[in-house]
Structure formats: C-alpha cells, structure tokens
C-alpha cells in the first residue's frame, strides 16, 4: 500500500498528490511515469511523475479528474493509501529539467495562459497563441506538448510547417507497463511502438494521433457505465446514512 502524505486541489478539476513510494522515488527521472491502481478492483492508469524527493521517499503526481479511477484517486485524503504505485516506467529524458532562478523569471515573463472560454488568461486554444508567436517572428528550438491528445495533435500540426522539433507525451491505455501486453501501442513514423517502453515521449510530427484517439475511446462506454454505477452507489450510501 502507498500512503498519501500531501494533497492540494490545484483547481476544481486538477489535483496534486504526494505519495510515499521510496523505491520509485529512488530511481525516478524526468520524463518517466507510474501506473497506479486505487484498489484491487480498479483499472491501471498511467500518470507522469511530476516531481520526486529521494530523501523523503515521495513521488508527486498531478492529474485531472477525467474518468472513474482519477475521480476515486482525487477523493483520497492525506493518510489514506492506494493499492498499487508501480514505477518508474518509460524512457527518461536525457537529464532532469532544472529551471534556475534567473531563467525562471524569464519563463514567467513569457508565460501565456489560454482557456477555451476565456475565464482565465486569454480566450482561445494554445495553438492560436503558438501560431501567432511563431508568425510574429519568435524563434523556437523545440516545443513540448503534454496534455489531451487532440491538443498534442494540433500543436504538432501547428509546428510542422515551420520545422520546429516537437515532443509529445503519450498516455494510451496501459496494462502491464513493461512492453508485454501491447495495450499501449502507438504508430510512430509508420512503425509500431509501445509507449511504456519506447516512450512515453515521441516526435509529435511522426505520431498517428487519429489511431491513438480511436484506441483510447474503446472503453468509453464501459467507463461511463461504471462511473454511473459508482455515483448511484455513493448516492445510496449517502441516503442510507441520512435515513
Ligand atoms: Fe503493455 Fe505497454 S502497457 S505493452
């Protein structure tokens, strides 16, 4: 079991958890991920390692509540435990990304926040801002896109005509995380790759995003039914407690 030692609700949809996992923390490197299971009946879900503390033996994950498992995970509190926390998995990036203080102020000076509805920052997609910055003559050596698959697809499409190297982080369905089951396969440059052992980072200009979106939607119906059942169960428990 893996104990939660810190929890922050970053907004209504995104949660940060720091989890006690000394063996994972000991070996974790930037770009790697873990697979968690909330309990023995849960599905296995991959999440990027956001941070780690080798001395404390903890690993930090940041995730959006999009399916039943991430909703169950976000409902856990400090002191609670989860069943599995396996990792570190995947190929690490060459080195950890460390932003020095003066670089940090440069980063924050050039920080743009976009929201679909304009409730924070500017209204529009990240691709709108990216395109306008490139067209304004800004030079970029590389673009890194991490997030929903459609976003990564269109970021890659935006940078391709300008020849800007673009790295995307894949999060397909994963089961074993060791290259054995084939669940996480993605087509990159016409070749089959396994995101768990060959990735999760790939050249965005080479990824077949449409195939990936199709594969990722295979269990949508089952997931919606499970979420519905879970909500009904929770409602019944709340009703029984009150009456
Ligand atoms: Fe099974 Fe990658 S998760 S092969």
Topology overview:
Elements: E1 2-9, E2 14-20, H1 22-27, E3 33-37, E4 45-48, E5 51-53, E6 58-64, H2 68-74, E7 81-82, E8 84-89, H3 101-109, E9 114-115, E10 122-123, H4 126-135, E11 143-145, H5 149-159, E12 166-169, E13 185-188, E14 191-194, H6 195-198, E15 201-203, H7 209-216, H8 220-242
Parallel strand pairs: 9-10, 11-12
Antiparallel strand pairs: 1-2, 1-7, 2-6, 3-4, 3-8, 5-6, 12-15, 13-14
Descriptive notes:
The protein is of the alpha+beta class. It is built from 8 helices and 15 strands. The chain has a 5-stranded antiparallel sheet with strand order 5-6-2-1-7. Strands 4-3-8 form a 3-stranded antiparallel sheet. It has a 3-stranded mixed sheet with strand order 11-12-15, covered by helices on one side. A hairpin with a 4-residue loop joins strand 1 and strand 2 (14-20). The longest helix is centred in the last third of the chain and has 23 residues, at 220-242. It is globular. The chain starts with a strand and ends with a helix. The model has no long low-confidence stretch (mean pLDDT 87).
Structural class: alpha+beta
Low-confidence stretches at least 5 residues in length (pLDDT < 50)?
none
Portion of residues within helices: 25-40%
Q: Could you describe the largest sheet, including whether it forms a barrel?
A: 5 strands, antiparallel
Q: Assign an overall shape.
A: globular
Number of discrete helical segments: 8
The mean pLDDT is 87
Order of strands, widest sheet: 5-6-2-1-7
Percent of residues in β-strands: 25-35%
Number of beta strands: 15
Ligand list: FE2/S2 (inorganic) cluster
Q: Specify Rg, calculated over alpha carbons.
A: 19 Å
Ends apart, CA distance between termini: 34 Å
Elements, N to C (H/E): EEHEEEEHEEHEEHEHEEEHEHH
